[in-house]
Specification:
The complex is a heterodimer of chains A (about 220) and B (about 220). With about 220 residues, chain A is α+β, with helices and mostly antiparallel strands. Chain A is built from three helices and eight strands; from the N terminus they run αααββββββββ. Chain A has helices at about 1-20, 25-65, 75-105; strands at about 115-120, 125-135, 140-145, 155-160, 165-170, 175-180, 185-190, 205-210. The chains are: A alpha+beta (about 220), B mainly alpha (about 220).
């Protein structure tokens, strides 16, 4: 019973599917017009790239083609003068930039009032120059590990009217702490040298590291 | 074998004892008798612990020259001996200059574990310059942790002593021009060292790169 009902349903579905669907009279014409339109657009897209390539090829060809350039002597002189002018201006600008860099780099050392410590080789020892600018001082000494911290042992000489005090001390490579002593009583650390981290006595000391020469023993 | 060891120790004592006496003699006439007696105890203890007497005597002489009281001189010498002991623990076998610079770094807040790392990075080679650069940076105001991590990073990338000195000079120049000390230190690190410096957990665990590089508010 159930099988008969199913067969009947299937038969009706098949019949419905086989039935012709009515279309309008211009259906075929409409479809063909759409197909034609799509084909034309595709050709346009495909044609775009070759056109651009043609333009580039033409430009390249124009650039490569040799030409005769006619320039009067006056015009040539003008071109050369302009080139020289550009070159000189460039060098002047570069010089100004370099001068600015040097000024910045030299700024820390340009603090003229600060003492300077320099080292120069001297027969196994390193000659260290201590410098202090103290215009109002009557005497300046340097005391440190290298002279048992004796205040009067290493006196500095006034080497300029501006109040520049200097002394050269031969030292072995190593680490030393020191302080300047102005007028026998005032302890002044070296303003440009690193301070010793531990200030045990309320008067900071400076640290000097005398490096060993390359290839030499410390 | 036992006799040889005993003879070596006896020889060491015979050589070292006069050296200690020589160092202590530098205190003659520089401190009062009571201070001298207390200093002798400290120096003998330091000598027994294998510490060099020279930096301790220098510290005492510095205090005497600067007019410090006996108590203050003894306290400073004790403090230095303690710092040198910690430095030696961190550095292992070390020269006098290394011990003094290490002691200064530890006194300034450097982590002894990072000093130990320096030693493992340069086994058998001198750390004198590296430690001097470290203490100089700290003396210029670079936070102890930033300075230590920077030097450890540089040594870890096999920077030579000359490069360490150049690094310190550059940082000092930047600070002199007004840059915050920590930022100048980080900025001046070469790229290879910066990678090591910035890697969390590679060197310690404290301040991050951003913290170190952040400019301080005036």
């Amino acid at each position: 019973m159930a099988n008969n009902m199913a067969d009947d349903l299937i038969g009706r579905v098949v019949e419905e599917l086989r039935r012709q669907v009515p279309t309008s009279a211009d259906f075929d014409a409409c479809v063909m017009a759409r197909v034609q339109d799509t084909r034309i657009r595709g050709e346009e897209v495909q044609d775009a790239s070759p056109a651009r390539l043609d333009w580039l090829a033409a430009a390249w060809s124009w650039l490569r083609r040799p030409r005769t350039l006619r320039v009067s002597p006056l015009g040539a002189l003008g071109v050369v003068a302009a080139a020289v002018l550009l070159l000189v201006a460039g060098r002047v600008l570069a010089g100004r930039t370099a001068a600015g860099s040097r000024a910045v780099a030299a700024a820390p050392a340009a603090r003229g009032t600060a003492p300077i410590t320099t080292a120069a080789s001297h027969g196994g020892l390193e000659m260290v120059r201590f410098v202090l600018l103290a215009p109002r001082a009557h005497s300046v000494a340097v005391a440190g590990d290298f002279n048992n911290w004796r205040v009067g042992r290493t006196m500095m000489r006034r080497s300029s009217a501006a109040g520049l005090w200097t002394v050269d001390v031969p030292l072995r490579p190593g680490r030393y702490t020191y302080t300047f002593v102005v007028d026998g009583t005032r302890w002044v650390p070296d303003p440009v040298a690193p301070r010793e981290i531990a200030d045990d006595f309320g008067a900071p000391s400076s640290v000097l590291a005398v490096p060993a020469r390359e290839g030499g023993g410390a | 074998m036992r006799y040889r060891l005993g003879a070596a120790l006896l020889g060491l004592v015979l050589v070292a004892a006069p050296l200690l006496a020589q160092q202590e003699a530098r205190l003659d006439g520089r401190v009062d008798a009571a201070t001298r007696a207390r200093l002798t105890v400290v120096l003998d203890s330091a000598h027994a612990a294998g510490l060099p007497a020279d930096p301790l005597v220098n510290k005492a002489l510095e205090g005497a020259s600067k007019g410090a009281t006996g108590d203050r001189i003894v306290a400073a010498v004790r403090r230095l001996a303690a710092d040198m002991t910690r430095a030696r623990t961190a550095l292992g076998a070390a020269s006098t200059a290394e011990l003094v610079a290490g002691a200064a770094a530890i006194h300034g807040g450097a982590d002894p574990a990072l000093l130990n790392r320096l030693r493992t990075q340069r086994p058998g080679a001198s750390l004198e310059v590296a430690l001097a650069v470290l203490t100089d940076l700290m003396a210029r105001g670079v936070p102890a942790d930033t300075a230590t991590r920077a030097v450890v990073a540089l040594v870890g990338t096999r920077a030579r002593d000359a490069e360490l000195v150049a690094f310190r000079r550059n940082v000092e120049e930047d600070i002199a021009l007004g840059a915050p000390a920590a930022a100048a230190t980080v900025v001046r690190l070469p790229a290879s060292a910066m990678i090591v410096f910035a890697q969390p957990g590679v060197i310690g665990s404290s301040p991050s790169l951003h913290q170190a590089a952040a400019p301080r508010r005036p």
